[in-house]
Amino acid sequence: MSSRFEIRLGGSGGQGIILMGIILAEAIGIYDHKFVAQTQSYGPEARGGSSKSEVIVSDVEIDYPKAMKPDLLLVMNQKSCDDFYTDLKPEGILIVDSTLVTQVPNPRAFQVPFTRIAREKFKREMVANIVALGALSQLTPIVSSKAIEAAVLARVPKGTEKMNRDALKAGMAAAKRAKREWLKIEIPPEIPKEDLLDSY
Question: How many folded domains does the chain comprise?
Answer without folding.
Answer: 1
